[in-house]
Amino acid sequence: MNNPLVYLNSNGSGSLTPLSEAKVSVLDRGFIFGDGIYEVIPVYAKKMFRAEQHMARLLRSLAAIGMPNPHSKEEWLQLLQQVMDAHSGDDQMLYLQVTRGVAKRAHAFPAEMVPTVFIMSNPLTPISSEVRAKGVICVAMEDQRWLHCEIKSTSLLGNVLAAQNAVEHGAMESIQFRDGYLTEGSSSNVWIVKGDVVIGPPKDNLILEGIRYGLLQELCAAQQIPLQERRVTRAEVFAADEVLLTSAGKEVLAVVKIDDQTIGKGLPGPIYQQLYAAYQEAKAAN
Ligand code: PDD
What we know:
Layout: E1 5-10, E2 13-18, H1 29-33, E3 36-44, E4 47-48, H2 51-64, H3 73-85, E5 92-99, E6 116-123, H4 129-134, E7 136-142, H5 157-168, E8 173-178, E9 181-185, E10 189-194, E11 197-200, H6 211-222, E12 227-229, H7 234-238, E13 242-247, E14 251-258, E15 261-262, H8 270-284
Parallel strand pairs: 7-8, 7-14, 11-12
Antiparallel strand pairs: 1-2, 1-6, 3-4, 3-5, 5-6, 8-9, 10-11, 10-13, 13-14, 14-15
Helix pairs in contact: 6-8
Bound molecules: N-(5'-phosphopyridoxyl)-D-alanine.
The site of N-(5'-phosphopyridoxyl)-D-alanine has 14 residues, from α6 and β13.
């Protein structure tokens, strides 16, 4: 059986352990309350991609929920590197989770908690070229999540139900709307293209600021593609020339149908092609 090495800090001391032996207490607040923060970091050619930005977001999320940061940035990067080095693949997906730790069950934070830190890595499975060439189908739904979507919290029930809704509709992602405006996918940011302009919802409490949000801004600037951050109506999404998803796993991916409605020409469009090519160059230059 595949039994990769993972990093687990339980009871204060951390080590690399075979996955099958990595155990946490049932009283861990991650298990009891979903009281935790996580990051998903792609690795290309044995090098973490946009590690600095992932670290900055981790710190923002920890601060937002009043969780003490158990490690310096250098220590975090070393731990991630250790897990990465314990795996043979060149391209990996690192997963890091930190919870508030183990305590008798009580909603408010107990004093003097020792955070539980867990890091694993999985082989990176890219979106196939067939899927990329055709584009993907999504389904629209009302955003039913809480109002702190900017925090990368392990409390993901709203996202889990949105992802399940997509599966049940034979779709890649649910595209969520709140009060008639676009928010994001169940595990991706969503963009529309109108004419030659890329438009994405503002970085506020209603969406997670993906690491690819900033990257798309950089790629658009370098390609001289105008990008606007503003509220996007449901009608604008359906009338868009192109719709794009971005996330660690999807990189940038074209949406060609939402519900039963074709987007643009029903094929990945020219702005997608340009941004996907630029994304591959950014990976190569990492
Ligand atoms: N999810 N919005 C949500 C709700 C997400 O869960 C994600 C990523 C993103 C895109 O963020 P990034 O560009 O940093 O991947 C936006 C990760 C991949 C996950 O939960 O597995």
